Amino acid sequence: MKTLKPTETLDRHIRQNGITTGPRKLEIFKRALALRGTPAMHSQENTEDPTVFVKLFDPAGSWSWLISEWDLDCTAFGLIIGQDQEFGYVDLAELSEVPGALGIGIEVDVWFLPQPLSKAIQAP
Length: 124
Description:
Blueprint: H1 23-35, E1 51-52, E2 54-57, E3 64-70, E4 75-81, E5 85-91, H2 92-95, E6 107-108, E7 115-116, H3 117-120
Antiparallel strand pairs: 1-7, 2-3, 2-6, 3-4, 4-5
């Protein structure tokens, strides 16, 4: 799979309409991470302002996952924004099963572009 240019949005490559939860949603998450060329786990751990490659979010809530690293399978790492903000590991398989308040599941922000974490946390 090719890696997109940092200035290219995911909207032409990710189709998530009608896909709510489950294995197909997990494949969408993995496709987004692969298209962005999300680096390996621990590759940015000594970086002062790591790059966020993919944003996942609950369209009916206030939770977001700013993903900066990925193990090429079902584990990612990044800043989790919910009731608090904390860095942590994200189980993508588990996240793909979350229906959210509207029942449409967690979505990939197809308009999000890779950017430093300091900039990503300021964006709406």
